[in-house]
Task: structure prediction
Amino acid sequence: MALPAAAAGVHEVRTVDELNELLQEAADAIHEEVTIRFSGQLRGKHVQRILGDSLWTNHCRQYDWTPLSKKEHEFRFTYMDSTRMLAAHRNPELECRLNKVERKALEEARRRIKQSVTKGMSNLEIVQALHDSLVEDVHYDKKGDPACTTMLLKHKGVCDAYSRCMYLMLNMMDIPCHMVVGKVKQKVHAWNLVQLEPGEWYHVDATWDDPCMPDNTQVVRHTYFCLTDAELRGDHKWNARQYPATPEKKGYFYRKVNRYFTTYDEFWADAQRAFDRGEVNYSAYLTCFGSARRFNRNYKDYKKNGGTIGLESWAQPSDMQRRVISLTFSNKKSKPDEDLPEPDDESTLPIAEETSWLSIDMWNRVSELVDMGAIAEEGSKMMQKGMDSVEEMAEEYSKPEGGVQEKAKAAWDGLMNKIRH
Result:
């Protein structure tokens, strides 16, 4: 199934394994796009399920789908810049196929790795070093570019750009890393799934570890670093079937760095040592957190007992599945009667206004709720004429009221009648 340098023509597949194999081969050859015809007795919903079980989101930023008949569906996949740069890194002879911007961005990725990673680091230390390097150096731009090249060269972008950069740099270090596409707060979002030990994968969301602070200060957090499925599921939604499952034991990162605490005394003692060393950002897993009120009460008790930590800001757990406390120290010692600052609210979380993944996610939602049947020739017309209506349907599906299946079927029938007539 080897592909030529130029991905001309249409390549036929019949299984998910063949689809994944061909997507990888085209990626390794540094193609900009590839056209694939999927053959077999397939309904539209089944095609979406096949795509959901593939790893196309690792390589491609979008696809165009044209149902040709009951037995054939054609897709044109467009590759990400990060995929092309990774292939060029692994095969320098093909680097000439990158454009000028991609070559420059690849050099920047290599420079960042050389600056951040030292010999003898564990996989966890490498992932943390590259995560922190990225978060410290870039800022979230909710109307920004999803390209990896833009983030590496202009130091700004949306969640796609963060996840693409992590995907690129970690795979350059031979640490297996997937891009994950899902939703947070009804907005489409992207993050990473990283293999830190054989068979053990964890979620890393560099975007949400880079809060948008009111004074534009750079803050590095590890609230969404190396999380299990259960820890992330409180505010992130994704198709878990598409990706490897994580271990069940919570607090992996904080156990590894000895910041997993079951008492406030242990927590404050370790935070005090970090403050005395001159650290700026501190985070720990506190199983007994309880509430902001309880945290404030313990902060006052700690200061009465001689504690001197000064705080610029702090963030409490947004979900009790993930009891991570993040502190940003001030450069001054606190006074005994100084109050605890108000915790950061959700306005600091990076949430995009727009994203290139939006239409894809909506189509996934439609396909999950409605049996589309054999669309045949109407399919391409539906994609062009019906997208606005489908988006409205997807918005309706996101509401918590009952009767979703009935609403979906009625809306779908109305849409199909419009297209046919």
Observations:
- Residues 268 and 302 are 7 Å apart (CA to CA).
